Amino acid sequence: MIKDIKGLHHITSMASDARQNNRFFTETLxxxxxxxxxxxxxxxxxxxxYGDENGSAGSVMTYFPFQNMMLGRPxxxxxxxxxxxxxxxxxKFWQDRFTAQGVDGLxxxxxxxxxxxRFMGPDGDGLALIESADDNRAPWLAEGIPDDAAIRGFAGAxxxxxxxxxxxxxxxxxxxxxxxxEGDVTRFIIPDGNGADTIDLTALPKIPFARPGAGSxxxxxFAVDNREKQLEVRKALMDTGYQVTPVIDRxxxxxxxxxxxxxxxxxxxxxEPGFNRDEDTAHxxxxxxxxxxxxxxxxxxxxxxxxxxx
Length: 310
Known about the structure:
The chain is of the alpha+beta class.
Protein backbone atom coordinates (compact mmCIF):
# COMPACT_ATOMS: atom_id res chain seq x y z
CA MET A 1 0.00 0.00 0.00
CA ILE A 2 1.17 3.52 -0.82
CA LYS A 3 1.77 5.67 2.27
CA ASP A 4 3.07 8.90 0.77
CA ILE A 5 -0.06 10.59 -0.61
CA LYS A 6 -1.13 13.57 1.51
CA GLY A 7 -4.54 14.34 -0.01
CA LEU A 8 -5.36 16.44 -3.05
CA HIS A 9 -2.81 18.65 -4.77
CA HIS A 10 -4.98 20.41 -7.38
CA ILE A 11 -8.01 19.89 -9.60
CA THR A 12 -7.90 20.97 -13.24
CA SER A 13 -11.03 21.77 -15.23
CA MET A 14 -11.95 23.33 -18.58
CA ALA A 15 -13.77 26.58 -19.28
CA SER A 16 -15.17 28.49 -22.26
CA ASP A 17 -13.99 32.01 -21.43
CA ALA A 18 -10.82 33.07 -19.58
CA ARG A 19 -12.05 36.46 -18.39
CA GLN A 20 -15.32 35.07 -17.04
CA ASN A 21 -13.48 32.22 -15.33
CA ASN A 22 -10.93 34.56 -13.74
CA ARG A 23 -13.64 36.90 -12.49
CA PHE A 24 -15.69 34.08 -10.93
CA PHE A 25 -12.84 32.47 -9.01
CA THR A 26 -11.08 35.64 -7.88
CA GLU A 27 -14.08 37.89 -7.24
CA THR A 28 -17.09 35.66 -6.54
CA LEU A 29 -15.22 32.92 -4.64
CA UNK A 30 -12.40 35.17 -3.43
CA UNK A 31 -9.51 32.88 -4.31
CA UNK A 32 -6.12 34.24 -5.23
CA UNK A 33 -4.88 33.85 -8.79
CA UNK A 34 -1.49 32.37 -7.99
CA UNK A 35 -0.31 31.78 -11.55
CA UNK A 36 -1.15 32.73 -15.08
CA UNK A 37 0.66 30.64 -17.62
CA UNK A 38 -0.32 28.64 -20.71
CA UNK A 39 -1.31 25.10 -21.53
CA UNK A 40 2.06 23.39 -21.99
CA UNK A 41 0.71 21.50 -25.02
CA UNK A 42 -1.23 24.42 -26.54
CA UNK A 43 0.23 27.86 -25.70
CA UNK A 44 -2.70 29.62 -27.35
CA UNK A 45 -4.72 28.69 -24.22
CA UNK A 46 -4.21 30.02 -20.70
CA UNK A 47 -3.58 27.78 -17.73
CA UNK A 48 -4.94 29.68 -14.73
CA UNK A 49 -4.35 28.65 -11.11
CA TYR A 50 -6.43 29.85 -8.13
CA GLY A 51 -5.81 29.05 -4.47
CA ASP A 52 -4.62 30.41 -1.15
CA GLU A 53 -1.83 32.93 -0.64
CA ASN A 54 0.96 30.54 -1.65
CA GLY A 55 -0.93 28.13 -3.87
CA SER A 56 -0.58 25.43 -1.23
CA ALA A 57 -1.22 21.83 -2.19
CA GLY A 58 -4.86 21.07 -1.47
CA SER A 59 -6.06 24.59 -2.29
CA VAL A 60 -5.46 25.02 -6.02
CA MET A 61 -8.20 24.96 -8.66
CA THR A 62 -6.80 25.28 -12.17
CA TYR A 63 -8.44 25.88 -15.55
CA PHE A 64 -7.79 25.54 -19.25
CA PRO A 65 -10.14 28.16 -20.76
CA PHE A 66 -10.66 27.10 -24.39
CA GLN A 67 -12.49 30.04 -25.96
CA ASN A 68 -16.11 29.15 -26.89
CA MET A 69 -15.63 25.49 -25.96
CA MET A 70 -18.81 23.38 -26.01
CA LEU A 71 -20.25 22.69 -22.57
CA GLY A 72 -19.62 19.26 -21.12
CA ARG A 73 -22.43 16.81 -20.47
CA PRO A 74 -22.49 15.42 -16.91
CA UNK A 75 -22.45 11.67 -16.50
CA UNK A 76 -20.37 8.85 -15.08
CA UNK A 77 -16.63 8.44 -15.38
CA UNK A 78 -15.79 11.89 -14.07
CA UNK A 79 -15.18 14.11 -11.07
CA UNK A 80 -18.69 15.49 -10.75
CA UNK A 81 -18.25 17.84 -7.78
CA UNK A 82 -15.31 19.86 -6.48
CA UNK A 83 -15.75 20.57 -2.77
CA UNK A 84 -14.28 23.57 -0.92
CA UNK A 85 -13.95 23.88 2.85
CA UNK A 86 -15.43 26.92 4.62
CA UNK A 87 -15.87 27.71 8.34
CA UNK A 88 -18.88 26.38 10.21
CA UNK A 89 -21.80 28.79 10.13
CA UNK A 90 -20.68 30.60 6.97
CA UNK A 91 -23.10 29.15 4.40
CA LYS A 92 -25.65 31.92 4.93
CA PHE A 93 -23.03 34.49 3.92
CA TRP A 94 -22.24 32.51 0.78
CA GLN A 95 -25.85 31.88 -0.15
CA ASP A 96 -26.63 35.60 0.10
CA ARG A 97 -23.49 36.47 -1.89
CA PHE A 98 -24.23 33.94 -4.62
CA THR A 99 -27.85 35.01 -4.86
CA ALA A 100 -26.84 38.66 -5.24
CA GLN A 101 -24.35 37.75 -7.97
CA GLY A 102 -26.69 35.46 -9.89
CA VAL A 103 -24.81 32.20 -9.30
CA ASP A 104 -26.80 29.23 -10.61
CA GLY A 105 -27.71 25.89 -9.08
CA LEU A 106 -27.91 26.92 -5.43
CA UNK A 107 -28.97 24.02 -3.23
CA UNK A 108 -28.35 23.36 0.47
CA UNK A 109 -28.19 19.92 2.06
CA UNK A 110 -26.24 17.86 4.56
CA UNK A 111 -23.75 15.13 3.67
CA UNK A 112 -21.85 12.97 6.14
CA UNK A 113 -22.93 15.24 8.99
CA UNK A 114 -21.73 18.50 7.40
CA UNK A 115 -23.81 21.31 5.94
CA UNK A 116 -23.06 22.13 2.33
CA UNK A 117 -24.06 24.58 -0.36
CA ARG A 118 -24.00 23.25 -3.89
CA PHE A 119 -23.70 25.65 -6.82
CA MET A 120 -22.53 25.91 -10.42
CA GLY A 121 -19.57 27.66 -11.93
CA PRO A 122 -19.89 29.78 -15.09
CA ASP A 123 -19.92 26.70 -17.35
CA GLY A 124 -22.16 24.59 -15.14
CA ASP A 125 -19.21 23.31 -13.11
CA GLY A 126 -20.31 21.11 -10.21
CA LEU A 127 -19.08 22.90 -7.06
CA ALA A 128 -19.89 22.83 -3.35
CA LEU A 129 -18.94 24.60 -0.14
CA ILE A 130 -18.66 22.25 2.86
CA GLU A 131 -18.74 23.60 6.41
CA SER A 132 -15.92 22.48 8.71
CA ALA A 133 -15.43 23.36 12.37
CA ASP A 134 -11.76 22.33 12.54
CA ASP A 135 -10.07 23.41 9.31
CA ASN A 136 -7.18 25.57 10.50
CA ARG A 137 -5.69 26.37 7.09
CA ALA A 138 -5.16 30.09 6.51
CA PRO A 139 -7.40 31.57 3.81
CA TRP A 140 -6.66 34.18 1.18
CA LEU A 141 -8.74 37.21 2.20
CA ALA A 142 -10.27 38.87 -0.84
CA GLU A 143 -12.22 42.11 -0.69
CA GLY A 144 -15.69 41.66 0.78
CA ILE A 145 -15.10 38.16 2.19
CA PRO A 146 -14.39 37.99 5.93
CA ASP A 147 -12.00 35.55 7.58
CA ASP A 148 -14.89 33.66 9.21
CA ALA A 149 -16.32 32.80 5.77
CA ALA A 150 -13.32 32.59 3.43
CA ILE A 151 -12.47 29.37 1.60
CA ARG A 152 -9.72 27.35 3.29
CA GLY A 153 -8.93 25.08 0.34
CA PHE A 154 -10.47 21.89 -0.92
CA ALA A 155 -12.43 19.62 1.36
CA GLY A 156 -12.35 16.93 -1.33
CA ALA A 157 -14.14 15.79 -4.44
CA UNK A 158 -17.00 13.55 -5.53
CA UNK A 159 -16.77 11.08 -8.40
CA UNK A 160 -19.72 9.75 -10.41
CA UNK A 161 -18.96 6.22 -11.58
CA UNK A 162 -20.77 3.42 -13.35
CA UNK A 163 -19.27 0.99 -10.85
CA UNK A 164 -17.18 1.99 -7.82
CA UNK A 165 -15.55 -1.34 -7.01
CA UNK A 166 -12.23 -0.98 -8.84
CA UNK A 167 -11.83 2.67 -7.80
CA UNK A 168 -12.48 1.73 -4.17
CA UNK A 169 -9.68 -0.82 -4.43
CA UNK A 170 -7.37 1.75 -6.03
CA UNK A 171 -8.05 4.38 -3.36
CA UNK A 172 -7.33 1.81 -0.67
CA UNK A 173 -4.01 1.03 -2.35
CA UNK A 174 -3.27 4.78 -2.45
CA UNK A 175 -3.68 5.02 1.34
CA UNK A 176 -7.31 6.10 1.61
CA UNK A 177 -9.56 4.48 4.20
CA UNK A 178 -13.24 3.76 3.77
CA UNK A 179 -15.01 6.00 6.30
CA UNK A 180 -18.80 5.88 5.78
CA UNK A 181 -21.64 5.45 3.31
CA GLU A 182 -24.85 7.39 2.70
CA GLY A 183 -27.21 5.96 0.11
CA ASP A 184 -25.22 5.36 -3.08
CA VAL A 185 -22.24 7.50 -1.91
CA THR A 186 -19.18 6.03 -0.16
CA ARG A 187 -16.62 8.30 1.52
CA PHE A 188 -12.89 7.67 1.65
CA ILE A 189 -10.49 9.68 3.83
CA ILE A 190 -6.70 9.98 3.78
CA PRO A 191 -5.46 9.88 7.40
CA ASP A 192 -3.34 12.83 8.58
CA GLY A 193 -3.69 14.56 5.24
CA ASN A 194 -3.30 18.16 4.13
CA GLY A 195 -6.93 19.18 4.73
CA ALA A 196 -8.13 18.19 1.24
CA ASP A 197 -8.70 14.71 2.57
CA THR A 198 -11.93 13.20 1.25
CA ILE A 199 -13.04 11.41 -1.90
CA ASP A 200 -16.72 10.49 -2.30
CA LEU A 201 -17.65 7.80 -4.80
CA THR A 202 -21.19 7.77 -6.21
CA ALA A 203 -22.42 4.61 -7.93
CA LEU A 204 -24.72 5.44 -10.86
CA PRO A 205 -24.98 2.25 -12.95
CA LYS A 206 -27.80 3.48 -15.22
CA ILE A 207 -26.33 6.89 -16.14
CA PRO A 208 -24.54 7.45 -19.50
CA PHE A 209 -20.86 8.37 -19.58
CA ALA A 210 -19.98 12.04 -19.35
CA ARG A 211 -18.98 14.05 -22.41
CA PRO A 212 -15.99 16.27 -21.58
CA GLY A 213 -16.24 19.99 -22.29
CA ALA A 214 -16.36 23.37 -20.59
CA GLY A 215 -17.32 22.88 -16.96
CA SER A 216 -15.82 19.37 -16.84
CA UNK A 217 -12.91 18.31 -14.67
CA UNK A 218 -9.96 17.33 -16.84
CA UNK A 219 -8.00 15.57 -14.09
CA UNK A 220 -7.58 15.38 -10.34
CA UNK A 221 -4.13 15.50 -8.74
CA PHE A 222 -2.92 13.95 -5.49
CA ALA A 223 -0.05 15.40 -3.45
CA VAL A 224 3.30 13.90 -2.48
CA ASP A 225 6.08 15.78 -0.74
CA ASN A 226 8.86 15.46 -3.31
CA ARG A 227 10.22 13.73 -6.39
CA GLU A 228 11.69 10.84 -4.43
CA LYS A 229 8.30 9.96 -2.98
CA GLN A 230 6.70 10.42 -6.40
CA LEU A 231 9.04 7.86 -7.96
CA GLU A 232 8.16 5.40 -5.21
CA VAL A 233 4.45 5.94 -5.89
CA ARG A 234 5.01 5.53 -9.64
CA LYS A 235 6.82 2.22 -9.14
CA ALA A 236 4.11 0.92 -6.81
CA LEU A 237 1.37 1.79 -9.30
CA MET A 238 3.24 0.23 -12.22
CA ASP A 239 4.00 -2.90 -10.20
CA THR A 240 0.24 -3.19 -9.65
CA GLY A 241 -0.40 -2.98 -13.39
CA TYR A 242 -1.24 0.67 -14.00
CA GLN A 243 0.14 2.40 -17.08
CA VAL A 244 1.80 5.51 -15.65
CA THR A 245 3.46 8.29 -17.65
CA PRO A 246 7.08 9.25 -17.12
CA VAL A 247 7.67 12.17 -14.77
CA ILE A 248 6.79 15.46 -16.48
CA ASP A 249 8.16 18.83 -15.40
CA ARG A 250 5.26 21.29 -14.99
CA UNK A 251 7.55 24.11 -13.75
CA UNK A 252 5.74 24.44 -10.39
CA UNK A 253 5.55 20.71 -9.64
CA UNK A 254 6.49 17.41 -11.23
CA UNK A 255 3.63 15.24 -12.44
CA UNK A 256 2.76 11.67 -13.39
CA UNK A 257 -0.59 10.59 -14.84
CA UNK A 258 -2.64 7.42 -15.18
CA UNK A 259 -6.20 6.54 -16.15
CA UNK A 260 -8.30 4.85 -13.47
CA UNK A 261 -10.70 1.93 -13.99
CA UNK A 262 -13.68 4.26 -13.53
CA UNK A 263 -12.46 6.56 -16.32
CA UNK A 264 -11.12 9.46 -14.20
CA UNK A 265 -7.62 10.75 -15.03
CA UNK A 266 -5.41 10.77 -11.92
CA UNK A 267 -2.23 12.78 -11.45
CA UNK A 268 0.31 12.53 -8.66
CA UNK A 269 2.08 15.88 -8.21
CA UNK A 270 4.92 17.04 -5.98
CA UNK A 271 4.63 19.84 -3.45
CA GLU A 272 7.97 21.14 -4.73
CA PRO A 273 9.18 23.54 -6.08
CA GLY A 274 6.01 25.66 -5.67
CA PHE A 275 4.50 28.70 -7.36
CA ASN A 276 7.08 31.18 -6.06
CA ARG A 277 9.91 29.64 -8.09
CA ASP A 278 9.62 32.36 -10.76
CA GLU A 279 7.90 35.27 -9.01
CA ASP A 280 7.80 36.67 -5.51
CA THR A 281 4.95 35.46 -3.28
CA ALA A 282 3.64 39.03 -2.97
CA HIS A 283 3.13 39.19 -6.74
CA UNK A 284 1.96 35.68 -7.61
CA UNK A 285 -0.28 35.51 -10.65
CA UNK A 286 0.29 39.08 -11.79
CA UNK A 287 2.47 38.44 -14.85
CA UNK A 288 2.19 35.90 -17.65
CA UNK A 289 4.76 33.17 -17.03
CA UNK A 290 5.80 30.90 -19.90
CA UNK A 291 7.62 27.58 -20.07
CA UNK A 292 11.17 28.24 -21.27
CA UNK A 293 10.54 26.62 -24.65
CA UNK A 294 7.90 29.29 -25.41
CA UNK A 295 9.81 32.39 -24.31
CA UNK A 296 11.03 33.15 -27.84
CA UNK A 297 7.37 33.38 -28.88
CA UNK A 298 6.19 35.55 -25.98
CA UNK A 299 5.03 38.50 -28.09
CA UNK A 300 2.95 36.28 -30.37
CA UNK A 301 1.48 34.31 -27.46
CA UNK A 302 0.54 37.43 -25.50
CA UNK A 303 -1.09 38.96 -28.57
CA UNK A 304 -3.29 35.89 -29.00
CA UNK A 305 -4.38 35.68 -25.34
CA UNK A 306 -7.34 37.83 -24.34
CA UNK A 307 -6.65 40.13 -21.36
CA UNK A 308 -8.03 38.75 -18.09
CA UNK A 309 -9.28 42.15 -16.93
CA UNK A 310 -11.85 44.23 -18.80
